[in-house]
Design brief:
By secondary structure, the chain is of the alpha+beta class. It folds into 2 domains: about 5-35 and about 175-215, no CATH class; about 40-170, Alpha-Beta Plaits (2-Layer Sandwich), CATH 3.30.70. The chain is built from 9 helices and 5 strands. Strands 1, 2, 3, 4 and 5 form a 5-stranded antiparallel beta sheet that branches. The two termini are about 40 Å apart.
Length: about 230
């Protein structure tokens, strides 16, 4: 299709393509609220108990490294429990910050890689997430061994390995897909599809080029009569 034909098609059906755009604009004007900014603190802990003071000459610390991996795995599971969240909530309350245990449990995620324990804390306030992270770390180091009898008597089972820093989190894929620009782009695409569909289903001959493309001879054309000209004749 030539550019002239495309422009004629748009000029004929522009109002149809504008409908989905207006609908999306109206929906955004009344319902859209920008997603809140969230922040995340990543805590890293090096895990492992104190090895026995007397080692055999052939001891290669294999079991110490193996036990440190088990400790990291156990503490990672513990940090996502409701009991741990309640302990953190109690500590925060004593420090003047009231947050429910359910909210804390939802904000904590964990992972572990070999002897390294990683705790992710996501929150909507940068200052609060730092205080929450400090409480999570202190509670994990103090109370972690009390949940596992096999950790008792082996000294400190985890040590801080990172600084507490709150970093802004980029919007999620869902929020990016539902952003206003994406919605408007989809509305424009739907509008273009409606224009193409209307042009394809249009049964009227609106210009001589349509007949020429179909191999029909054009003997003449009756010019369109303007309304203001008919008024002048009256």
């Amino acid at each position: 299709m030539e550019l002239r034909g495309i422009l004629g098609m748009v000029r004929q059906w522009w109002w149809l393509g504008l409908i989905p755009v207006l609908v999306v604009v109206a929906m955004l004007a009344f319902t859209y609220t920008p997603p809140p900014q969230t922040y995340q603190v990543v805590l890293r802990f090096a895990t492992g108990g104190t090895p026995p003071p007397t080692l055999s000459p052939d001891y290669d610390r294999y079991y110490a490294w193996l036990s440190s991996e088990y400790i990291a795995n156990g503490l990672a599971d513990l940090a996502t429990t409701s009991a741990f969240a309640s302990a953190v909530a109690t500590r925060l309350t004593s420090e003047g910050l009231n947050i429910t245990a359910d909210a804390l449990q939802a904000a904590i995620a964990t992972d572990n890689a070999q002897s390294m324990l990683v705790v992710y804390i996501t929150w909507s306030d940068a200052d609060q997430v730092v205080r929450i992270a400090r409480a999570v770390g202190d509670t994990l180091l103090e109370l972690g061994p009390t949940y596992y009898p096999q950790m008792m008597g082996i000294g400190t089972v985890a040590r801080w390995a990172d600084q507490i820093t709150a970093n802004p989190v980029a919007p999620s894929l869902r929020n990016r897909l539902l952003a206003p620009a994406v919605r408007l782009g989809l509305a424009v695409a739907i509008g273009a599809a409606l224009i193409l569909t209307a042009h394809y289903l249009d049964a009227y001959v609106r210009d001589p080029q349509t007949l020429t493309q179909q191999g029909l001879p054009v003997l003449g054309a009756i010019p369109r009569q303007r309304k203001w000209m008919s008024f002048r004749r009256e």
